[in-house]
TrEMBL record:
GO terms for molecular function: DNA-binding transcription activator activity, RNA polymerase II-specific; RNA polymerase II cis-regulatory region sequence-specific DNA binding. Residues 147-170 have a biased composition (Basic and acidic residues). Residues 139-183 are annotated as: Disordered. This is TFCP2 factor. The keyword Protease does not apply. It is found in: Nucleus. Pfam families: CP2 (PF04516). It comes from the Eukaryota. It comes from Chloropsis hardwickii.
Length: 183
């Protein structure tokens, strides 16, 4: 339920995609599973979640905190999807809320639960044309506050045990994450 800010920026190079100049862009955000195994059963996983939490959504837009979004929508049949329009020439920030935690999609085994990683997938679409630019962003895992603290501590301890050569394979931790387009 915590709100996370995503700033929408027009980072086109000069002359790139002129068909969207002066037009609104429609962005569709989804929270999807990172694990390929769970991607194959996504529909069943979401239906099970819906059955356990009737009337709730997995993903919402925090409209009062968001700036520059137009016509925000949440399709009642797609619990993990939201969409809105925005003007690439204006400052736009959308605040999203995820209403589930990573451990809701894992089997409860021996007391400790690893939790499944999610990804935020975004598809900006020009309403006037069917052009779609799918992007997938870094993974996110959501835990209850005490569980999150415990998970971060365990992850730090695991990282400290790795050799310097193994540590080079990982990105260092930062207070904020800057998302860049991947081609």
């Amino acid at each position: 339920g915590q709100s996370y800010e995503i700033r929408m920026l027009d980072n086109r190079k000069l002359g790139e995609l002129p068909e969207i100049n002066g037009k609104l862009v429609k962005s569709i955000f989804r929270v999807v599973f990172h694990d390929r195994r769970l991607q194959y059963t996504e529909h069943q996983q979401l239906e099970g979640w819906r059955w356990n939490r009737p009337g709730d959504r997995i993903l919402d837009i925090d409209i009062p905190m968001s700036v520059g979004i137009i016509d925000p929508r949440a399709n009642p049949t797609q619990l993990n999807t939201v969409e809105f329009l925005w003007d690439p020439s204006k400052r736009t920030s959308v605040f999203i809320q995820v209403h589930c935690i990573s451990t809701e999609f894992t089997l409860r085994k021996h007391g400790g639960e690893k939790g499944v990683p999610f990804r935020r997938a975004e598809s900006p679409v020009s309403p006037e044309s069917p052009v779609c630019f799918p992007r997938t962003c870094p993974g996110l895992s959501l835990f209850q506050p005490k569980g999150a603290d415990r998970k971060q501590k365990t992850d730090r301890e695991k990282m400290e045990k790795r050799t310097p050569h193994e540590k080079e394979k990982y990105q260092p931790s930062y207070e904020t994450t800057i998302l860049t387009e991947v081609s």
